[in-house]
Amino acid sequence: MSTNLLTLEGVHTHIGAYHILHGVDLVVPRGELTLLLGRNGAGKTTTLRTIMGLWQASQGRITFAGEDITRLNTPAIAQKNIAYVPENMGIFSDLTVKENMLLAARNAKHAVQMDEARLQWIFKLFPPVEKFWNHPAGKLSGGQKQMLAVSRAIVEPRDLLIIDEPSKGLAPAIIQNMIEAFEQLKASGVTILLVEQNIHFAQQLGDTVAVMDNGRVVHAGSMQTLAEDTALQQSLLGLAL
Question: Which residue intervals define the domain ABC transporter in the entry (predicted)?
């Protein structure tokens, strides 16, 4: 079995007349948290959306668990036990927290059919999900919506969790809660690919890191190596961690 759960090889993506990804090479090791960093407009979100089939790669190959998924549609990719939390979270505002969770639980038609032990685990990770179980999701704060979005993604066991900027716009206390939750998710064996701008968040969680610029991966390696090399941070990101 390959140590890499997800691999992108020479992936190009065009959106209309625009050529966004220019040959992305990326590996996501099994059981680790891989961070995708880069300035705004570097191609990070496009990479995630291309992996999920929301935008089709115009060239290159995407492999998941040894299977070529490049040409699969989004529902077929999700069926491979891959969950995606977009930057806008995709919450159904008019539905309750419970109804949002139930929609993501493919093996349950009613709330009582959801895995109770797994729900209790999620409630410990994100207490507001339990607290506001019967409340409309649209009434939640930004941090609570993000917790719901991640909870929905893990309501069933997943092999790969792909999340776009989970800490964006959150208060420091909520970010720390999110860090602790992701540490537990990692410990449970879930492989995670994360786009993140919060450097504190990245440093605490990342095992491996890929830095993007102009639609390409320009650096890949361990998060620790990047965190310890100020000159490398400046050259790649224009900042110091």
Answer: 6-239
Q: Per the structure block, which two tokens stand in for 115?
A: 């895995």
* Pairing of the two strands 82-85 and 160-164: parallel
Q: Within this chain, do residues 113 and 129 fall inside the same structural domain, yes or no? A: yes
103: which DSSP letter? H
Q: Across all residues in the chain, what is the average pLDDT? A: 91
Q: How far is CA 10 from CA 13, 26, 58, 62, in A?
A: 10, 9, 10, 9
Q: Residues, the chain, total? A: 241
- Out of 126, 156, 186, a domain closes at 156
Q: Which sign does the torsion angle of CA 157, 170, 49, 10 carry? A: negative
- 3-state class (DSSP) for residue 112: helix
Q: What is the pLDDT of residue 110?
A: 84
The model's pLDDT over 5-22, given as tens digits with 9 standing for 90+, comes to 999 999 999 999 999 999
- CA 143, CA 169: separation in Å to the nearest integer? 8
* Residues 75 and 93 reside in one and the same domain: no
Domain region containing 134:
88-156
